[in-house]
Design brief:
Elements: H1 2-13, E1 19-21, E2 24-26, E3 31-34, E4 49-53, E5 67-72, E6 78-80, E7 86-89, E8 93-97, E9 104-112, E10 125-128, E11 133-135
Amino acid sequence: MRTLLMTFLNQIYNHKYVKLYKGVMVRYPSDVFDVKSGSVNEILTPDKSLKIHGSKIKLSGEHEDVGIYFISENSNEKTKVPADEIIVNNPSELIISIPALDSGSYFLEITTQYSNSASLLKEPRIARFDKSLFVE
């Protein structure tokens, strides 16, 4: 347990977001690709497509918080991607239309109840991309 805790704290110190779920370290999402600009893990182009790759990122569940969010670093305001703007919803890939966002830095969060088994998680888990994304 001590080794797991030290590894987790080391990841936080090195600015890598790691989620602990049932004692297992899970990394997700791993990278994002802005289709319009061709940027990987940097730029967001509002009203254009964004490909998100990762592990266990499929949106599943009936909880009201399930969804994809862009969170402003300055104001902490959350912008949820409307369900009809989610184009592809797979366990390892999401493709969405980026909502209208003001210029600035954003965090990307995915909230889901998806699991590898046939049943959903009882409570949603939140996965935050480990890098800031920018709207120019």
